[in-house]
Amino acid sequence: LETRTQAWPDEAACQQSAALLAARPALRRAFVELHGTLGAGKTTFARHLLQALGVTGRIKSPTYAVMEAYPLEGFTAWHFDFYRFNDPQEFEDAGFRDVFASQGLKLAEWPEKAEGLLPEPDLRMELVPLDGDERRVTFTACTPLGQELLP
Ligand code: ADP
Ligand code: MG
Asked: From ligand 2's centre to the CA of 60, what distance in Å?
């Protein structure tokens, strides 16, 4: 597994990293896992990424709904937050399994809460808060598609 590490001194660096990832064509069919503690910046990164992909208007944290869908030009982006997820049956009933079997961008916060249900990600990001606004971010490519997404 190939990895790359970035240092984000502030949120502007998070936004810049999101913009660079958004420019990769492979992202439009990738599954990206966002790991990190509460407040690490998973939702913030997802918001900057979705904005860079053309989402206008409010981007809600999907903490309560578990999933938010964003139809974009030529593909759909789905943003998941499995923090409150505890019902494996919901994975079928809410159509999450179908989403993960589809093309389009799948972004997932707290994927560990849906362990055993999710497929292997293409790219895994781990956000670690350091002092103040600084974050250390590790990108791991888990598939050939993920290789195309490494910074
Ligand atoms: P999570 O989804 O991981 O629980 P959030 O994205 O909701 O975390 O919260 C992260 C908070 O940290 C936001 O208020 C964001 O503005 C702030 N923040 C400060 N510095 C950074 C940074 N370098 N990268 C991302 N977020 C940052
Ligand atoms: Mg979050």
From this structure: 10
